[in-house]
Amino acid sequence: MDSTDQLRETSRRIRKHLVRMHRRGSHFGSAMSIADILTVLFFRVMNIPSPGDPDRDRFILSKGHAASALYATLATKKFFDESVLERYLHDGECLYGHPVAKSLPGVEVSSGSLGHGLAIGVGLALAAKNDGKSYRVFVLMGDGEIQEGSVWETAILADRLRLDNLIAIIDANNLQGFDRVENIQPISTFRRKWEAFGWGVEEVDGHDHAALLEAFGRVPFRPGAPSVIVARTVKGKGVAEMEGRFESHYLSVPADRVEDWLREIDEKS
Amino acid sequence: MRRAFIKAVTRLAEEREDVYLLTGDAGFTILEDFRARFPDRYYNIGIAEAAMVGTAAGLALAGKQVFVYTIAPFATMRCFEQVRVDLCYQKLPVKLVGVGQGVTYGSAGATHHAIEDIGVMRVLPGMTVICPGDPREMAETVRRSISLEGPCYIRLGKSGEPVIHQKEGIDFSIGRGIVLERGERVALIATGNMLPEAVKTAAALKKKGFQPEVISMHTVKPIDAELIEETAGRCALIATLEEHNLIGGLGDAVGGVILEKNLPARLVKFGIPDAYAATAGCQDYLRECFGLGVGQMTEKLLGVLSED
Ligand SMILES: [Mg+2]
């Protein structure tokens, strides 16, 4: 297997975890959307020798509703046993629907309310700079999430602080809670907006591992500036009947579809 | 109080390299010296409170002791949900510092008054709420805030508040009220900038032959239930004094203890009667409007005492 074959296998494994986990709870589509981004980040791009390493790269899942994808990735990464995933959303367990800092090895930040993660990333990136540390901070946001004003307060701030160790990724699946993003707040001007705020911007296919790797390999896109990768994605990616449907934000996986969907992921992705 | 605050933070920053100070573009004539001495630990984040609190959380996750300084309503309410999620939910030891408690900003109007801040901070799980009563309490608060495991809210006034504790080295710890004068029958429990007014009210009551107990309840949360219980043993009338809405502040915290512990005390709450300032006016003028003048409070208490 070459390197991207391995990554594809990893993404399949994460997605299959997600199908099994999402027999309960919502946000299946949101989680499937970012499986490839998380694969590339955790298995190639980020340097995390161990979850407690003080110099580790930091990952913040600002779109906290896709927590299941983070758990599945961390388990696949062997930060904890994959059997833990069976307890997703169970009473008395720590696998919340939105991540809670330190609830599991590798979960850095509590999120769930949108528009918070980027500013926390700024604080971590600023501390790295001031402490002479080389770690980088990755913040994954949704394309609906960036309607929050706090994102843009922070975009100004990160530019001014020249945080080239801060990398935002936008999971641009063009869907949010109740409609297509473009029907609510048009996003055609993503690139120009972020560039106008001083950020280096690249757009990539968020399911193409090689393209993601290539883009992450070139950050910072502008010297001395924070970077944002607009990852074009498909909500529900990997299960044809869920792909591109905003309903996948809410629906859980029907028990009688689990086996079919697992097979589909093995065969097609 | 602002000077006592910055003096104490500066001293901490001299001793510890992890002390950071963020401001939301407030602090003219107060923060300049800190900025000059610690340029890489001072950031004017700009008029962006959500980004400021989030940034403070990130710095705290990296092990920093962060003070976040701006005008009280903006420090607490503009970015309330960042305070809730980023600081309280994550249990991060960020110190939120609100300037201009109560109606300190007088004629500026109610946008700049902080009359709900204690209430909204109190209801946050894990949040400690401290309203120092004089510059000495302020200095102690800053020093001791470093050892708190979670976030705290420190409520500041302006400059030039009188020193109430005459000797240095006061017996101060977060969560423990300070008895300034022991008394009987009537106790005045004050927080923040109402402490000097409590002292004055006590003096007026003394002239009428009473011996009031005076307590500085600098920490509103956690409230010092033990001290309230003890005081209720001596004083059947307990009055609370705060420059804050009567709903949700010190009075309710003390009242809760009285009810829960079934203490034999009657409670009189002095505060702002659930209203924004109806006119422009300086702090003293507005206090009179809200019944917080020393004469008004004295008269009210004499009336209640004469009912017994
Ligand atoms: Mg979306």
Q: Key terms for this structure?
A:
heterodimer; A: alpha/beta; Rossmann fold; B: 308 residues; alpha/beta; 7-stranded mixed sheet; 12 helices; 12 strands; binds magnesium ion
Helix content of chain A: 25-40%
Give the CATH topology of the largest domain in chain B: Rossmann fold
CATH architecture classification name of the largest domain in chain B: 3-Layer(aba) Sandwich
Strand composition percent of chain B: 15-25%
- For the report, how would you describe the main beta sheet of chain A? 5 strands, parallel
CATH C-level class of chain A: Alpha Beta
CATH superfamily of the largest domain in chain B: Thiamin diphosphate (ThDP)-binding fold, Pyr/PP domains
**pLDDT averaged residue by residue of chain B:** 97
Number of helices of chain B: 12
Mean of residue pLDDT of chain A?
95
- Our estimate of the beta-strand percent of chain A is 5-15%
Distance between the termini of chain A: 15 Å
- The CATH topology annotation of chain A reads as Rossmann fold
Q: Kindly state the number of beta strands of chain B.
A: 12
Describe, in plain words, how this protein is organized in 3D.
Chain A has 269 residues and is of the alpha/beta class. Helix content of chain A is 38%, strand content 11%. In chain A, helix 6 links the parallel strand 2 and strand 3 (166-172). In chain A, 51% of the residues are buried. Chain B is an alpha/beta fold and 308 residues long. Chain B folds into 2 domains: 2-155, 3-Layer(aba) Sandwich (Rossmann fold); 178-307, Rossmann fold (3-Layer(aba) Sandwich). Chain B has 12 helices and 12 strands. Chain B has a 7-stranded mixed β-sheet, with helices on both faces. The mean pLDDT of chain B is 97. The interface between A and B is medium-sized, with 30 and 27 residues. The complex binds magnesium ion. Residues 142-144, 173, 175-176 of chain A line the site of magnesium ion.
